[in-house]
Specification:
about 230 residues, alpha+beta, Diaminopimelate Epimerase, Chain A, domain 1, 14-stranded mixed β-sheet, globular, disordered C terminus, Phenazine_PhzF-like, PhzF family phenazine biosynthesis protein
């Protein structure tokens, strides 16, 4: 098994926080889906990406328990790592660009896995939420400053796979942006930051800061924090 990269995606304004992502750059060493699923469960990230063609940006995305046709934070992080103009996912071709410290992707809301977008009256209510029991995938959100498009959010996958709360979720941010029809500045989890903007033709752009890769060998020491 080759080394893998550990990224933090959607970091906060001072480079902290962000959602961890595992990326296996040489996906060809593990072509079988069952083997990929097993490794994704072993690594324990909210998502793990297998790169099948680094030049064309062909990728395959897994949570610890299932394969996803598209996911936001894996695409943002992998686009930053590979520095490619697009990614090819089972859901469709995702546009990608780098803008200073920020990595951006452009995708469609219908590509996102189903999520329940649950609005609360205040950001304090979102902060006070406890992790719900396994069941539906809930994206809890509230306006911090509606006029400025600032949102407070938390995400509860509800899959019972050890990821009780997702620190930053690009797909849910895309769904919320599509529903509200406006650009958003989202603070999610402990302090991650996601920026979004609706685009012509039903596309939505989501971006954030990705922090440098740490590399760990499978079977070696435990994976490091970024």
């Amino acid at each position: 098994m080759s080394d893998y990269d550990v990224l933090r995606v959607f970091c906060g304004p001072k480079g902290g926080y962000g959602n961890e992502l595992g990326v296996i750059r040489e996906g060809s060493v593990l072509p079988d889906r069952a083997d990929r699923q097993e490794l994704a469960a072993e690594l324990g990230f909210s998502e793990t990406v297998f790169v099948d063609d680094p030049e064309r940006g062909v990728i395959d995305i897994y949570t610890p328990t299932l394969r996803l046709p598209f996911a936001g934070h894996p695409c943002v992080g992998t686009a930053w790592l590979l520095d490619v103009p697009e990614l090819v996912t089972p859901a469709g071709v995702v546009g990608a660009r780098l803008d200073g410290e920020f990595s951006w992707i452009e995708a469609r809301a219908e590509w996102a896995p189903p999520r329940t977008l649950r609005q609360y009256a205040t950001a304090a209510e979102v902060d006070a939420l406890r992790v719900p029991p396994p069941g539906e995938w809930i994206y809890a959100w509230a306006w911090e400053d509606e006029a400025a498009g600032r949102v407070r959010a938390r995400a509860f996958p509800g899959r019972g796979d050890g990821i009780d709360e997702d620190e930053a979720t690009g797909a849910a941010a895309i769904l919320l942006t599509d529903r509200l029809g406006r650009a958003l500045n989202i603070t999610q989890g402990a302090g991650s930051q996601l920026l979004t903007a609706p685009q012509p033709g039903g596309w939505v752009e989501v971006g954030g800061e990705a922090a440098g890769a740490a590399v760990t060998r499978r079977g070696g020491t435990p994976r490091p924090g970024p």
